[in-house]
Amino acid sequence: MAPPVTVNTINPKVIECEYAVRGEIVILAQKLQDEIKIKPEAHPFEEILYCNIGNPQSLGQQPITFFREVLALCDHPSLLDKSETQGLFSTDSIQRARKILDQIPGRATGAYSHSQGIKGLRDTIAAGIEARDGFPADPNDIFLTDGASPAVHMMMQLLIRSEKDGILCPIPQYPLYSASIALHGGTLVPYYLDEATGWGLEVSDLKKQLETAKSKGINVRALVVINPGNPTGQVLVKMLSQSIRVRIDLNNKPPMVLQVYQENVYVPEKKFHSFKKVSRSMGYDEKYIHLVSFQSVSKGYYGECGKEEVIWKLPGLVLILVMSPPKAGDESYESYISERDGILSSLTRRAKTLEDAFNKLEGVTCNKAEGAMYLFPRINLPEKAIKAAGEAKTAPDAFYCRRLLTETGIVFVPGSGFGQVPGTWHFRCTILPQEEKIPAVVTRLTDFHKRFMDEFRE
Amino acid sequence: MVPKALDYETLNENVKKVQYAVRGELYLRASELQKEGKKIIFTNVGNPHALGQKPLTFPRQVVALCQAPFLLDDPNVGLLFPSDAIARAKHYLSLTSGGLGAYSDSRGIPGVRKEVAEFIERRDGYPSDPELIFLTDGASKGVMQILNCIIRGQGDGILVPVPQYPLYSATISLLGGSLVPYYLEETANWGLDINNLRESVAQARFKGITVRAMVIINPGNPTGQCLSEANLREILNFCYQENLVLLGDEVYQQNIYQDERPFISARKVLMDMGPPISKEVQLVSFHTVSKGYWGECGQRGGYFEMTNLSPKTVDEIYKIASIALSPNVPAQIFMGLMVNPLKPGDISYEQFLRESRGILESLRRGARLMTDGFNSCKNVVCNFTEGAMYSFPQIRLPPKAIEAAKKAGKVPDVFYCLKLLEATGISTVPGSGFGQKDGVFHLRTTILPAEEDMPAIMSSFKKFNDEFMDQYEDNWNHSRM
After folding, report:
1. What is the pTM for the complete model shown?
2. Most buried of A259, A377, B159, B333 (most Cβ within 10 A)?
3. Is B372 found in the same domain as B318?
4. What is the DSSP string of B149-195?
5. B300 part of contact set with chain A, CB < 8 Å
6. What is the rounded distance in angstroms from the CA atom of residue B243 to the CA atom of residue B227?
7. Is B329 an 8 Å CB contact of chain A?
8. Which pathway is it part of (chain B) (predicted)?
């Protein structure tokens, strides 16, 4: 008798769903890494350079000292009762930890909290949102979650009733959306960002996709906007107000807005404006727009991916600290500012260096990374390469990425993992390797690319 | 106006169908009363630290050091932290790929999974493969992930004990599957009768349901019973014959309050039974840092271990785990510390032993106090809490009370529990939240309130119960102890 749980009998939606950020290429990379550990000469490179995932601290980015001081004190509150603590922790971190612990019932940082997250922390977050946007925010409308991903899942669960329910997603998109839509049995309705205009949105395309979906009997229920974009990095300004207008015209699509990279903006001419701020400024309040915004501590300049803001857990804490960091005059202010600015300016420099390097490669064009943590260059692959990929039964961009990995140890994510205009090929590269590693990445990539094009050029 | 996508009417029906009584009506009412200034004793959730149980010192020291690794470079760190905590922090930091702030492997830090495997091997006497162990944000997330893989639609049934912890009923509802109940025998100490199981399966199949999996909660929640080895053998044989995957919720394995039936893992019994069963029965086992004597509910740390699942299936489960990128890293450190605890000779060992023993012995006494307290009421029968964290007394409600409940539009045990709450501030969960036989009523409370508060709580309950029975039963005699 066949065992009850096999790939033939598990939930087919599980089989259908895909997530390239930790997909096939990455699994291979880990295998190669294990091989190098055992035999360092096993491959033509000494180390794997993970440029596939927005995981800053795994690549050497340092956490913000003040934040970690506060977290450590909250994790072990009895430190606050010891006089020696003043010798090892800054005064303002001690004060802040006390203040936060006072907001936690019984100071019990190990207890299940309110299912939406600790009330006091939500109050602080609401105040932070209000300060950012200039419009009131209600703590009862805020849910703290285990990272932004589960929150997106929850929304999909609420919205998707059957495969007839569609969710408008930008293409290219961060594959959390495609994966969770598949997992919940809905339909992804793509709208294409325009590479030629810095990944801008054409409202006419949005409308067209909506009409097409409707004609197929799909009930479009939400519009996903990722600002700043992932993988594309564009910072939306005009697009926000345009898409709001479209939404109003076409009724009842709640923009589901992912704003995790709001602190990562690298171009002086663009500024992050939250969706809520723009819609309220246009005069649309909650009667007109259902808006669900997601923010995360995994990105920004703090990069606390492993922490996750959790419904049940103490850290709404990092979010609080991000919303109200040390102020001028506080003991930790100087070091906080220098750490923060150091990280942000380094990210800006790395973004530029890599963008320039990509644009120098034959057949490759790369839009500027206005924000977020990625570059998403487009590569014109020669016919010969596309044919070879076909024979190897892989998508052409995955073919290129695989070769890149096995010859140089560099890990990119093929563009097909994010979606792209059919017939175009891209790959996503993070800007996160430490600055001193970037020249090595550039050199290896450039040499590899030349060899690859020599092999496959017409 | 056209209904919007997130308006109530247009939400996913499965979401609306879900019930989760542990934080349901009673809890909401209790929270309201608390806001109004009434003192509430929350005994609705197994949330030890919220009721004053102290966290163990050693793990908190280690995690604090991991949060702020620059402390390790400070020459004065030894003034605040013992050397074994410092060593352990360095150990766990070395296992991470960039400290607590970096995403780990989607299955969890390999070094921690290895420690979990070693723990399982020491506990059961059989080797365990770290590649088949996935760390999760709490055991509940793991349960939901596995059920999501199994349930394809309404036609798929999951055997669930009644009474059960409503994570199962809620998740099955959410995923659009069918719950197939099997009743535990209250008069036999909530024992499992294999005939009940067979009957449940037969009925389900008759209705056209494909029964895919069986859930056991051992020790039980809310019932607390510990399964015997014979029981586990029966269950595994049953799963083998009926082609079911066994889901072993073993989160309370450290909470055992009697000596006749110590905890035995489903995996150990499976392996003991030898081939073909040991090689064929599919098993997923769940554990957590939230319970035991650790009680670190808020950290969100858990794991599941898979046995006899094919590599292809494991890959699919890995794929789903990877969408959320990574389980939370600090909780993984707690998990490592839990499965790889201190040893005699370690500086912090004595303190650790004292703290953990203290907690377990106090829980054992609390279990006894509560059981006896409930049994001292004439209309209440309470099985002893053999394990876990709860007391689940059966309350006989007179017909007049049931009438009154109906008039108030409430299920009888909800009616009783609401009145108990309003009168005494004790916030419980009505038995209907867990499932029970028709016409039989229970409530669930935890055994977690501080020992010194227990006598007052029990006499408060007794006073309320006597007054309630006075009101609704003719010729009710107060039993004076």
Report:
1. 0.90
2. B333
3. no
4. HH--STTEEEEEEES--THHHHHHHHTT-EEEEEE-BGGGTTB--HH
5. yes
6. 21
7. yes
8. Amino-acid degradation; L-alanine degradation via transaminase pathway; pyruvate from L-alanine: step 1/1; Photosynthesis; C4 acid pathway
CATH of A148-295, one of 3.90.1150.10, 3.90.1720.10, 3.90.1170.10, 3.40.640.10: 3.40.640.10
Contacts of B49 in chain A (CB under 8 A): 106, 108-111
Q: Residue A309 — pLDDT band, cuts 50, 70, 90?
A: very low
Q: Are residues B335 and B361 in the same domain?
A: no
The residue in chain B having the minimum alpha-carbon distance to the alpha carbon of residue A182 is B320
One domain, residues B210 and B272:
yes
DSSP label of B98: S
Q: Do A4 and B320 make contact, defined as CB atoms within 8 angstroms?
A: no
Q: Could you give the count of Cα atoms lying within 13 Å of A9 in the half-sphere of its Cβ?
A: 19
Residue ranges per domain, chain A?
Answer: 12-59+341-455, 148-295
Q: How far is CA A249 from CA A171, A252, B11, in A?
A: 22, 9, 22
Residue among A158, A161, A314 minimizing CB distance to B298: A314
Chain A hits for B63, CB-CB cut-off 8 Å, are 75-76
Give the model confidence (pLDDT) of B349-383 as tens digits.
999 999 999 999 999 999 999 999 999 999 999 99
Q: What is the DSSP string of A335-346?
A: HHHHHHHHHHHH
Chain A nearest-CA residue for B98: A58
Inform me whether the C-beta atom of residue B5 falls under 8 Å from chain A C-beta atoms: yes
Q: Average pLDDT over chain B, rounded to whole?
A: 93
- Residues of chain A with C-beta less than 8 angstroms from the C-beta of B76: 84, 87-88
- Rounded Cα distance between B417 and B26, Å, is 7
